[in-house]
Amino acid sequence: MDFWRATTLEEQIDTAMGRQEADLVLKGGNVFNVFLKTWEVADVAISGSKIVGIGQYKGRQEIDVKGLYLTPGLMDAHVHFESSMLSPREMVKVLLLNGVTGAITDPHEITNVLGEKGLRFMLDETANIPFSAYLMIPSCVPATDMDTSGARITPEDMEHIRKLSPRILGLAEMMNFPGILGKQQNEMNKMKLFYNQKVDGHAPGLSGKELNAYVAAGITTEHECVTPAEAWEKVRRGMYVFMREGSAAHNLVDLLPLLKKPGNRRLCLCTDDRHADDLIEQGSINYLLEIGVAQGYDPEDLIPMATLNIAECYGLKHVGALAPGYVADIAVFENLQSFQPVHVIKGGVQVVKNRKLLWKSDPVLEPPGQSMNMRPATVEDFRIPAKKNKKLRVIGISQTQLLTSELHLTPTVQNGEAVSDIGRDILKMAVFERHHNTGNIGLGFAFGFGLKKGAIATTVGHDSHNLSVVGTNDEDMAVAVNRLREIGGGLIVVSDGEVRATVPLAIAGLMSDRDAMAVNSQIKQLNFWLKELGVPEEYSTFMILAFTSLPVIPELRLTDRGLVDVVHFEHVDLWCE
Amino acid sequence: MDFWRATTLEEQIDTAMGRQEADLVLKGGNVFNVFLKTWEVADVAISGSKIVGIGQYKGRQEIDVKGLYLTPGLMDAHVHFESSMLSPREMVKVLLLNGVTGAITDPHEITNVLGEKGLRFMLDETANIPFSAYLMIPSCVPATDMDTSGARITPEDMEHIRKLSPRILGLAEMMNFPGILGKQQNEMNKMKLFYNQKVDGHAPGLSGKELNAYVAAGITTEHECVTPAEAWEKVRRGMYVFMREGSAAHNLVDLLPLLKKPGNRRLCLCTDDRHADDLIEQGSINYLLEIGVAQGYDPEDLIPMATLNIAECYGLKHVGALAPGYVADIAVFENLQSFQPVHVIKGGVQVVKNRKLLWKSDPVLEPPGQSMNMRPATVEDFRIPAKKNKKLRVIGISQTQLLTSELHLTPTVQNGEAVSDIGRDILKMAVFERHHNTGNIGLGFAFGFGLKKGAIATTVGHDSHNLSVVGTNDEDMAVAVNRLREIGGGLIVVSDGEVRATVPLAIAGLMSDRDAMAVNSQIKQLNFWLKELGVPEEYSTFMILAFTSLPVIPELRLTDRGLVDVVHFEHVDLWCE
């Protein structure tokens, strides 16, 4: 791949005027005008990294795009790269292949594990690449004080972090909306600090006066809307609403009717969390466009939500349109139903040619180092002595939503110990603190995982990302924990004392340092073995497990410090009357 | 008028939540939602200077606005305050009475007279007032090198000027578009300096590759469009287009059809140049809304052009909408045909109540000092010895446009001198340099002013603002010049050696230090005396005279350094074959 050369303003003017040949011309395509929502057959002339003219131009390099459709490079308004389990650079490769040339990212997960070092890793790995990765500073590190996170980011830390790079645009999703409404000092300090920058929101269902207060505090984006009415109230009150279609959350189709209303300049598209396999097999924001078109919406109305609207929302100049002075980020499509790009130009450089990626990079340049700081597990760690005449507080898993329920069940006891019961689908679960070698181990039981043998474990565990394990027997659970400890984290399936499949996630226990195709194969292998262990194919077992330790979603969760009753926001005992 | 008190974020949240009474509530009006272009019957709750809630609220102070229409305070996207001849503070008073609470101003005229001192005067006089005056740094001081301006602003000067205040948003209208297309070093330096800020445009008729080049250079607004096709091409290429309705330029009705197209979020309203009498008798941006409604357009489509679109164009956060977190700038109208506001709230404070202004201020706080630096004139200064067998180059005035023509006419000679000839309507004209006491006097003749006796003079003379005088006899011309010199500049009518009417413009010879009503009376008196001297009522004599010295509009102009052939851009002799 040729890297772009910097051109002077004088050269750009000469190129625009046709006095000198452009560096690159896309000849004769259907050029989308995002301002007018129209198409224009024209050449796009590029000088260095910038578009300088739309019209008739000659170039030293020319790409024939006659009959093809050119749009601004797509953007994702809100995405956690970590959710893909791909390294930032592998994620970028997949995004470029999908026509996505920029994203507003929130490195919430890695920062909860590694703190500022994690954020800097994301910043450094996305520097000087053919992709515009903007970062929001995670607002909630840790998310709660009910468990043990890897790090803590205070408002004072944020004050210097936000000066690290012009790619840092503000404060990431403020999930602690009760903290805002309740005027918690820490949250107030953050809002004051970012008053003149962008602050993203996360306030599912907030309405009326509470919404007024949340928005008045300076929070002006929202990606958690599930109904048009909710979204519409939020736009009405001044928010940009992002329609989300992630691997788990599917809100796009419900919200698309809003696109027909005059406020549609305040609507954007985002994926939030999207796994490697979905990204590779379905796509990213381009997949959202495909859904929109399939639902009968005009591509001319959909594309601004993935381009200009996002640029306006975040105050990004020179991005999001095909017009003179704009950065030459361009996706070239064969038709307006399947948005798999034929070519992609990023900053004036062709990065995808005939659906092949031209940009080469190792998955990781500078790994952030080891994140597993815990002693090995023994089978003894999993022992739960039975208590007479007491019942177990069991986490009731749902396979269709992240909410859990608190169940009070009679334990199955063997040799004086409460044990997993495959027949009743009540399995032992444990959460090992893995950041500070505290030795914390939370023990409990979960109903509904469907595992018939063996054990599974993961170091992806929102938001503190301790090591969660669930299994049919203590031996396999110990093997799973210890193997993850050895390989630096990941996802694992164990049975009969043997490791059956792993997705090693050497980067903070969250992301792989392998290439995207390898990760995709590992995930397939993992899913194969999950099925072998009796889990129905339609279950999102690892995703469910990753949220079983998040003590902010009702009702009952297991952390490294034991069970949490999220309704009353307090630690509770495993045993009850 | 009570000034607003600063409230804390905590108080704002408590007010939004309804936990404490608001400082001010506008009760039960029809509240315009600029995002959705809809109306909502609701209370608007204000804490300090900010709107914190739309809904049902109680306030320590309440204003009953039932049945009335609330819009965001109107804004003017581009205005030269000097054109009103009112001091900045008097201008603001008139604007507030018209529901205008903010404006993007270009202090082009005063800066051409007083340089940075003039710009600072505009900045200081608009500080700490109930009005948001944003400033763009004049890009063309001087406009040309064909005459003598009061000052020069270099790119180096701009570098420190732009840091003077956060109200300085960028570079004002770049009139020197040939300089941009021709890559003049000075203009290139300015564009590089302001690459990340806003640069306003001024490029009438520019199209195709020239437009590409102009926009690629970083210029992204335009207020000179006269046809929908021109405006549409400019929006297509990424510009914001301002529909203008000034005292002289009337483009609004021609451009309004664009409002029906999808690109209307890129359209704004501006007045550019509007005189005191028009402001007082017709209004400002509110008058443009009236025109739009009278032409059959929906107020819901028109209002965003005077509010949110301008805020987005200039990247102004917290302005341009009625929503939580936005500055409480609100205009309250009785109906949606006549946009003369009943009440106006600026920054949470009622500044207009029942159509009366509550804000009190002297017209000027700190006058910038004397700007007339020239010796007195004598009748000898006006003598033009006749040349045998030669013709005069005469400036042919048009009463309908600013273009002039170059006429070659036989002089009327008395006592060996070329003199004014009332019968042929060929009048002597002179331009006195008034900034640096150079003694420069340009002499010439003009056809078409229609004056039957006496003389008229003005220190408003674009863009260098020297003293221009035209008259039927040398004696009255000398009286006019000397009186303007004594009073510090202004407009004047003289006949029979007597001063008949003046509009003293003590501020840089451009603006009055009197209140708006006094200025309006003086203008009426001036117009009465113009009529007495034989000038038809429909002539815009003083405006025409103010442009007769501007050596950038074809064909022939008179400067302090003599006649300029604007077609060939060179000085020419008064006499020709």
Descriptive account of the structure:
Two copies of one chain form a homodimer. Chain A has 577 residues and is α/β, with parallel strands linked by helices. Helix content of chain A is 25%, strand content 28%. In chain A, the strands form six sheets. In chain A, strands 1, 2, 3, 4, 5, 14, 15, 16 and 17 form a nine-stranded mixed sheet that branches. In chain A, α3 (108-114) crosses α4 (116-125). The interface between A and B is large, with 57 and 57 residues.
Number of helical segments with 4 or more residues of chain A? 17
Which geometry of chain A do the CA atoms define? globular
Which two chains form the greatest contact, residue counts included?
Answer: A-B, 57 and 57 residues
Mean pLDDT of chain A: 96
Assembly type of the shown chains? Answer: homodimer
Sheet/helix structural class of chain A: alpha/beta
Supply database-style keywords.
globular, homodimer, alpha/beta, 577 residues, nine-stranded mixed beta sheet, 28% strand
Short description:
Two copies of one chain form a homodimer. Chain A has 577 residues and is α/β, with parallel strands linked by helices.
Helices, strands, pairings?
The structure is a homodimer of 577-residue chains.
Chain A: H1 9-16, E1 22-33, E2 38-47, E3 50-55, E4 59-64, E5 69-72, E6 74-79, H2 88-97, E7 100-105, H3 108-114, H4 116-125, E8 132-137, H5 155-161, E9 168-174, H6 177-181, H7 185-193, E10 198-201, H8 208-216, E11 221-222, H9 228-236, E12 240-244, H10 252-255, E13 267-270, H11 276-281, H12 285-294, H13 299-302, H14 308-313, E14 330-333, E15 343-346, E16 349-353, E17 356-357, E18 391-396, E19 405-409, E20 412-414, E21 417-419, E22 426-432, E23 441-447, E24 455-458, E25 467-471, H15 474-487, E26 490-495, E27 498-504, H16 516-532, H17 541-547, E28 556-559, E29 562-565, E30 570-572, E31 575-576
Parallel strand pairs in A: 1-4, 1-5, 6-7, 7-8, 8-9, 9-10, 11-12, 12-13, 18-23
Antiparallel strand pairs in A: 1-2, 2-3, 5-14, 14-15, 15-16, 16-17, 18-19, 18-31, 20-21, 22-23, 22-25, 24-25, 24-26, 26-27, 28-29, 29-30
Helix pairs in contact in A: 3-4
